[in-house]
Amino acid sequence: MRFPTYQDLDELIKRPSITRRVMNLWPPFAGASISIRHISEDFRHVRVRLALRKLTANYLGTLYGASLLSMTDPWWVMMLARNLGRGYQVWDKSAQIEFIAKGRGNVYAEFRLSEQTLAEIREETRDGAKHLRWFTTDIRSASGELIARVNKEVYVRERLP
């Protein structure tokens, strides 16, 4: 039996069901009670939950702000990288969070990537040009109340041969 290579693992996590399981076991998410509820087959829709537990509550009994930001961390980059393919570099550049209401229970974030957005990015990055794009993600309670809004700036560049 041989140890899996990076290429083996990369091929494996192209499957959304495996990616979801792996990310749910990833220590930063598991330790923060962040769970991935859904990843679509085309990697264009992701739904994530952050559970309020004793270990995820601050001294006021509400969710830690850093955990709210953390639950949104890899998704835009991962979704773009999977949809644009190996011919593109995709990195997080910056993030901002606006706290709107107290997180007193489980909260959810949804990420949706449209074909129009992908087409715009491909057009903007033709010939190796860099493209910076902001994505907004609302974090909501189970009842739909807006808890926080996260803005992430993502860097994209087409790799030239």
TrEMBL record:
SUPFAM superfamilies: Thioesterase/thiol ester dehydrase-isomerase (SSF54637)
Gene3D superfamilies, per the entry: Hotdog Thioesterase (3.10.129.10)
Highest taxon of the lineage: Bacteria
Pfam families, alphabetized: DUF4442
InterPro entries: DUF4442, HotDog_dom_sf
Name of this protein: Acyl-coenzyme A thioesterase PaaI, contains HGG motif
